[in-house]
Amino acid sequence: MYQSITLRRATLPTALALIFASGLAGSVTASAADLGREVLATGDGWGSFGTGVTGGSAATSEHIYIVNSWQELREALGGTGAHTQTTPRIIYIKGKINAMEKNGGSSVLTCDDLAEQVTVSDTGRPFSMDDYIAHFDPDGSWGRNPPAGPLEEARAAAAKLQTSHVQQRVGYNVTLIGIGKGAHITGAHLLVRDVSNVIVRNLHLSDAYDCFPQWDPEDGSAGNWNSLYDNLSLWEAEHVWVDHVTLDDGENPRQSLPKVYGRPFQVHDGLLDVTHSSNYVTLSYNIFGDHDKVNLIGSSDSRLLDRDKLKVTMHHNHWINPGQRAPRVRFGQVDVYNNYSQILAAADFTSMWGIGFESALYAEKNVIELATGIAPSKVIKRYGGEHVFTHDNLVNGSPVDLLAVYNASVSAADQLTDDVGWQPTLRLHVNNVNDVKAIVTENAGSGKLDSDRP
């Protein structure tokens, strides 16, 4: 049964409320079991630089919520104006929430439900992706021209309608925290844009499914389907901590998707992307599950505003069968240490660390397991970058100098140097590389934290 959000605000014990009122909230964890009051520790990655990340830890009782539906979550965040909200708030998420819910969560919208609400202007018929695919077939009369006209306009309108249902902005000074082991949001695109001081913890975020991907015949030599939604996007966001979150494709894994026009019918974008001058981000103890383009850090080579931005730390994360972008970096100083990556199938894999324009990736004490047929030299791929530092990494149980094996496999023009121009100093709990697999396997992902309160 779904109750009004005003009836679901958490009531703090009187003594605890007095502590918060005294101004001490946010300096330390208020209660060992109340993760909503926890802040990022000093020195824990780029997120801790300067003012650090305190999220909604200073929230007063009237801005603490427990939600178990998409509508309640949206209202707690501030609805369509969430990104303008600055009042600290803690939002506890309970159970499974579907962003495509309707009727208060009693049923779920389908892609067809959305498409039927859009009319194609020249035929008067409801929009259909089947009609779109038939019309813009590059082997048919349309050829390899970019989609245009009534069907493309209808697709864009349907996509806009879906966005209004599934995309939710997050405001300043917010903590999103899952309760227990089953806190799960599916079908959503959480957008942390033009804000700062955000914490997301102990959540399972899955299947940001795009019902209406766009065909682009000019994307690559064979064209590609492009989708809109990441599970979690950081866009011009600063001081963000994402911790113990599991991100995956849910009930629509990439291996289950068909090929259309000979290309994968891509209904997912990234799992967690950090773009458009975002800065001071710590990503810790997360699971990135079986996805193609996992983590993009940076936007485009031409976005020079990203210089001296995109400072990101990634530690104790678990990548399970990434296709590529784990991570792929432009511009940023990115510290990747004490992570565990499993590449399960050669057919699904392109590369892990994408070295893009003016990037400075520092990769140390990581554990990588490569499937049969994948050479260690494939871990790194150059995308216009010049530098990467690698040290004390294990591949299939043995130490490998990943920069050296990469350089030995490419022409002189594509070789990289280890002169990244910086050395990480904001690190806590750096583990011996031989212990990393066990530590990450045991501790990463949602449901691993004691979060039964409030």
Automatic annotation (TrEMBL):
**Principal subcellular localization:** secreted
What subcellular locations does the record give? Secreted
Q: Which residues form the Pectate lyase domain?
A: 142-374
InterPro entries in alphabetical order = Pec_lyase, Pectin_lyas_fold, Pectin_lyase_fold/virulence, PEL
User: Which residues belong to the signal peptide in this entry?
Assistant: 1-32
Keyword annotations for this protein, in alphabetical order, are: Carbohydrate metabolism, Lyase, Polysaccharide degradation, Secreted, Signal
GO annotations under biological process? Answer: polysaccharide catabolic process
Q: Which domain of life is it from?
A: Bacteria
Tell me if Cell inner membrane is a UniProt keyword of this record. no
Assigned GO CC terms: extracellular region
Gene Ontology MF annotations: pectate lyase activity
Entry similarity comment: Belongs to the polysaccharide lyase 1 family.
Protein name per the record: Pectate lyase domain-containing protein
Q: Which organism is it from?
A: Chania multitudinisentens RB-25
